[in-house]
Specification:
alpha+beta, TIM Barrel, Jelly Rolls, 20% helix
Length: 591
């Protein structure tokens, strides 16, 4: 019986492939999941949650710069087992509010022209990566009895400022040479997004980001008539940046009802957002400083919450879909258990400005990518000559920094705010200038991607003259280096490395409440849960049960602002602030 059950989806996929070849797709009812944002042990649960909502397809990004160690075939196997079709979105560029849109940040060091057919270095690197993805995914194509019914060539290339038709054509020919197809591209539903793209092309179906009405479909059909058109990203919510308000769901009830009544295909982005663990969250290029870093949570106000729970919207959309299908909904999967963890206070372990790696001597400051570091921290030091009060200016310091003069704190720089100068006091003798820089996510969308280098990018100027003779000390904040760090005494500067422990009888998911801390990164049992920041809206960090263990658990906190420890606890729900006002169970009594 088990073999028959597992063979049945393959028959359906093969039938779908035959229909697809005739350009007569049945309705795709898809939800977007990113395997790299979901703990491996919960992949099947999240796919089953989608299926129980009435969806028949999973859309999934695979991010190039985080692909190592990801079980691509394991995820596709689960989709196949559950009878779900797949829209494969392998990059090379994805966006997805992921660091540098999924591209390797080493391209910033080498000055490679990204997303272009005109730079052979980009095509060679992309071709090598895509060849690996093709080898992994080819057995899962619908023509081979697998779940992959379409492959995306590029994501929202119509919005790229340097778009040229040669690049998507190169991508299409690459994938064709590997036996893939059908294909689609996804772009906004307006003429400006279709201009300079390789349309008309009967081999490229059109996704709309989003498609919400008949006029949107008409726009796509005008540019590329006769192909399959669907809403490739319909948004149940939206992303959040640090310092913004809380997650607010969109009301898609009328939109989904229209899709169902008209037989329109759609993909809900995101059906379940998950978590940008570690340093994988990206950024946008808006705001006063041209930089808006994304929070760690990718909750996205999705119908399935960050911890995998159904929301009110989940049940609303489920009812609409199954009513239109004339079917009885299946049971919703049991929720993944969650738990509280009693509050505890970690101890000061080492100064923030300790446990550095290499020291690099340079004439002008080096940006992080030049010395092979993605994010983390670095300290830049040089000597200022004696002189009167003046002004320090800089091209760009990315993204957050403490500035000291002879160990005295002068300023904290936040790239989001757009400040470009620092008032400098008079100096009776030569003084050491020290700039401790924390890098946050690389911009993942738009023109700002092209030069979003981290650390000191450019020069620092004293009264208009570029400073030279720098020493750069590196600190990558990789989990291994944090866990193996050496203890040290307080140096009187801001921040510090804190370490603590707690015991558990059993494990379950939890959210670590960081609302009493300032800004930093939390590691649990050597796993980087991501960044926290008291400006919100995110005040807690999701920790899956697999990170925890029965018995003693350890936490490491690399904190930029506080020099004294504060309490940490685990709670069952994500804690957020709404325009500065805390919500959730923050008022519960701390143990």
């Amino acid at each position: 019986m088990e073999a028959a059950v597992r063979r049945a989806p393959a028959i359906a996929f093969a039938a779908f492939a035959a229909v697809a070849q005739a350009a007569g797709f049945p309705q795709i009812r898809s939800g977007e999941l990113h395997p790299q944002r979901i703990p491996r042990e919960y992949w099947r649960h999240r796919v089953q949650m989608c299926k129980a909502m009435g969806l028949n397809t999973i859309a999934c990004y695979f991010f190039w710069n985080g692909i190592e160690g990801v079980d691509v075939r394991g995820f596709l196997d689960i989709c196949k087992d559950e009878g779900m079709m797949v829209l494969l979105r392998p990059g090379p560029y994805c966006c997805g509010e992921w660091d540098f849109g999924g591209l390797p940040v080493s391209m910033l060091k080498d000055g490679i022209t990204i997303r272009s057919s005109k730079d052979k270095r980009f095509l060679d690197a992309a071709g090598e990566y895509l060849s690996r993805m093709a080898e992994l995914a080819e057995p899962y194509l619908a023509k081979n009895g697998g779940p992959v019914v379409m492959t995306q060539l590029d994501n929202e290339y119509g919005s790229w400022p340097d778009k040229e038709s040669g690049y998507p054509v190169w991508l299409k020919e690459f994938w064709k040479s590997k036996g893939f197809g059908p294909f689609y591209m996804a772009d906004g539903a307006a003429d400006r997004f279709f201009e300079r793209l390789p349309y008309p092309d009967p081999e490229i179906n059109v996704g709309l980001d989003p498609g919400l009405c008949a006029e949107d479909w008409a726009c796509a059909e005008k540019w590329n008539p006769g192909v399959f058109v669907f809403s490739s990203e319909t948004y149940p919510g939206w992303l959040r940046h640090w310092g913004e308000g809380n997650w607010t769901p969109n009301d898609l009830r009328a939109t989904i009802a229209w899709y169902m009544a008209e037989g329109k295909s759609f993909n809900l982005f995101m059906i379940h957002g998950g978590t940008s663990f570690g340093f994988t969250a990206g950024a946008n290029d808006g705001g006063a400083g041209g930089y808006e870093p994304d929070v760690t949570s990718y909750d996205y106000a999705s119908p399935i919450s960050e911890q995998g729970l159904p929301t009110k919207e989940y049940y609303d959309y489920r009812e609409i879909i199954f009513s239109a299908l004339g079917e009885t909904p299946p049971p919703v999967p049991e929720p993944v258990p969650a738990m509280d963890i009693a509050g505890f206070v970690p101890s000061f372990f080492a100064p923030l400005e300790s446990n550095f790696g290499r020291e690099i001597e340079c004439v002008h400051p080096l940006f992080f990518e030049e010395f092979g570091q993605n994010q983390g921290m670095a300290r830049y030091e040089t000597v200022l000559p004696a002189g009167g009060a003046g002004e320090l200016a800089y091209d760009r310091i990315s993204d957050y920094a403490h500035v000291y003069l002879d160990g005295v704190h002068l300023a904290t720089l936040d790239r989001r705010l757009g400040k470009k100068t620092i008032a400098l006091p008079a100096r009776e003798r030569d003084a050491k200038l020290s700039i401790l820089v924390e890098a946050m996510g690389h911009i993942n969308y738009g023109a700002g991607m092209k030069d979003d280098r981290k650390g000191i990018a450019g020069d620092v100027y004293l009264d208009g003259k570029a400073l030279t003779g720098w020493t750069v000390s590196t600190k990558d904040l990789g989990a291994e280096s944090v866990v193996s760090a050496k203890a040290g005494g307080c140096d009187g500067k801001k921040g510090g490395h804190f370490r603590g422990a707690f015991r558990l009888e059993k494990t379950a998911d939890t959210f670590f409440d960081m609302s009493k801390w300032g800004k930093g990164t939390l590691y649990v049992n050597g796993f980087n849960l991501g960044r926290y920041w008291d400006i919100g809206p995110q005040l807690s960090l999701y920790c899956p049960a697999s990170v925890l263990k029965a018995g003693e658990n350890t936490v490491d906190i690399v904190e930029l602002e506080r020099s004294e420890p504060a309490a940490v606890r685990g709670v069952r729900e994500n804690l957020v602030s709404d325009n500065g006002r805390p919500t959730g169970n923050l008022n519960n009594v701390w143990d």
